Amino acid sequence: MQGFRDSATVLSSGQPCDCLPPLRAAAEQLRQKDLRISQLQAELRRPPPAPAQPPEPEARPTIYVVTPTYARLVQKAELVRLSQTLSLVPRLHWLLVEDAEGPTPLVSGLLAASGLLFTHLVVLTPKAQRLREGEPGWVHPRGVEQRNKALDWLRGRGGAVGGEKDPPPPGTQGVVYFADDDNTYSRELFEEMRWTRGVSVWPVGLVGGLRFEGPQVQDGRVVGFHTAWEPNRPFPVDMAGFAVALPLLLAKPNAQFDSTAPRGHLESSLLSHLVDPKDLEPRAANCTRVLVWHTRTEKPKMKQEEQLQRQGRGSDPAVEV
Amino acid sequence: MQGFRDSATVLSSGQPCDCLPPLRAAAEQLRQKDLRISQLQAELRRPPPAPAQPPEPEARPTIYVVTPTYARLVQKAELVRLSQTLSLVPRLHWLLVEDAEGPTPLVSGLLAASGLLFTHLVVLTPKAQRLREGEPGWVHPRGVEQRNKALDWLRGRGGAVGGEKDPPPPGTQGVVYFADDDNTYSRELFEEMRWTRGVSVWPVGLVGGLRFEGPQVQDGRVVGFHTAWEPNRPFPVDMAGFAVALPLLLAKPNAQFDSTAPRGHLESSLLSHLVDPKDLEPRAANCTRVLVWHTRTEKPKMKQEEQLQRQGRGSDPAVEV
């Protein structure tokens, strides 16, 4: 607007004399400059360019970490410890599957506070398959129904009770890893498995009564397994010792864990659907580095708690532990 | 320059007539607009403002985490798990103290790979104070010499074998926390302790035979302790349940742990030098939140390892576990 008023002023001195052309020229120049001014002002209003992004992180496959969990005294401690380890890994999606009748406040709250991309699933282990007090773990392997529930979700059969409800869209590049909540994981392990094409394997520390169990590798191929127990199992590997490419799992819709598999054969019950042992992909420097440990946390003694509770002085039940 | 040429053109049509004033006015307006244009162009050349920084992070006190450790099957697993948790905490300095004759390759390598700011210390527990196989932990509390070694280093008595060798310069704002390598720590705990003025306290989960032990707080002050065992100890708190301001520790050069303290009195042997129980600073929502758990890791069984070793087929000793 400024411009037009200015040029109007200039032309207002309108008696007949030959200075009209230069005045018209001046008015036109004023219009031009007003136009330039408004262009420059518009440029100044333009927001600054966004900062440079890291080179397309979307290109990296997502790691789907499947963790079965059940209520016990150390559950929160274990899940806090694991969730903090997972928070160090980019492009990770945590599938936490409770062995319960419904989602518990402890797990729901922990997931919400974790800052992780997660999906919350729940399935109760059938009574017949549940361990009785004092029964050794191998009588009924734990977490079978829960791991299969996560496979169902990945295959689009739904059932999420919290977090990300939609399964990965068709064609998603990803890898699936079964990470129990009591093992110890080096953050390095996850980058070893990220680019798995079929099934990748590595050693596991402190398992099977050995310092470590793991594949034996020659010329970059798996030629055997270091294990003390039933070396002739189709896949003598621990649950923490392998990862499976998501496209392979989706291409074999019947591949899942068999709760009736004999002791030590649970991993084989899934893997025999998916890969030939000779095609396993060795990771962790040809299986010479231990990046995951089969640690076990002691069950805390609650003798004093029971004594105090009998005296009505037990630990405040309102405090979550 | 543009401006002056324009105005010159306008004034060039110079025959005597009263349109000179408006032409002068036009020339002046053109000068004004040229000025404005050059101002706007200068603004556009100005570099964009730097992105906002977090409010001077140097102002935050440093957290000195003191961790005694000793060689055992689960040592590396425990230290990997702890170091990954500590890597989530800004402004943290890890003082890792080995109970050994000298620095071990396992610990030195782990520290170097941790990415943490650390100081590596070593002191061997005297034979007389060492636990014999099968002796319960309370006969000789573990880690006493190692924690005192860290206090010596903080007080400028040197002795570092790796990492940062210089102690904090006088006047450093900091807090000291004694974090054993087998407990479980929420990352939230460290922000609770960071601004400790004297000695801060909070509950510890799964300790002393209880769901949790911890201070009882009324009107923001510690008025007692929830514990089943010797509630009348001067400070019935677990090693994981308190932190001490660095300036306070430096002001009391004789404050340290007493290896001859009776069972359960080790924490008191340090704290009695430093603070009156009524002046303890309650943290973690007035001691109503559990952010650290006294977890214990099972000692792995090595029966199969021994069998295989007798057959010369033991786990490759070149593989670090």
Relevant terms:
Spore Coat Polysaccharide Biosynthesis Protein SpsA, Chain A, eight-stranded mixed beta sheet, homodimer, elongated, alpha/beta, 10 helices, disordered N terminus, 321 residues, three-stranded antiparallel beta sheet, 31% helix
Briefly summarize what is shown:
Chains A, B: It is found in: Golgi apparatus membrane; Membrane. The structure is a homodimer of 321-residue chains. Helices cover 31% and strands 17% of the residues of chain A.
Detail the topology: elements first, then pairings.
Two copies of one chain form a homodimer.
Chain A: H1 2-12, H2 20-45, E1 62-69, H3 75-86, E2 92-98, H4 105-114, E3 117-122, H5 144-154, E4 162-163, E5 174-178, E6 184-185, H6 187-193, E7 199-201, E8 204-205, E9 212-218, E10 221-226, E11 242-245, H7 246-251, H8 266-271, E12 281-282, H9 284-287, E13 292-293, H10 303-310
Structural commentary:
- Two copies of one chain form a homodimer.
- Chain A has one domain: Spore Coat Polysaccharide Biosynthesis Protein SpsA, Chain A (Alpha-Beta Complex).
- Helix content of chain A is 31%, strand content 17%.
- The first copy, chain A, contains ten helices and 13 strands.
- Chain A has helices at 2-12, 20-45, 75-86, 105-114, 144-154, 187-193, 246-251, 266-271, 284-287, 303-310, and strands at residues 62-69, 92-98, 117-122, 162-163, 174-178, 184-185, 199-201, 204-205, 212-218, 221-226, 242-245, 281-282, 292-293.
- Chain A has an eight-stranded mixed β-sheet with strand order 4-3-2-1-5-11-7-12, with helices on both faces. Chain A has a three-stranded antiparallel β-sheet with strand order 8-9-10, with no helix packed on it.
- Chain A is elongated, with a radius of gyration of 32 Å.
- At the A-B interface, helix 1, helix 2, helix 3 and helix 10 of A face helix 1, helix 2, helix 3 and helix 10 of B.
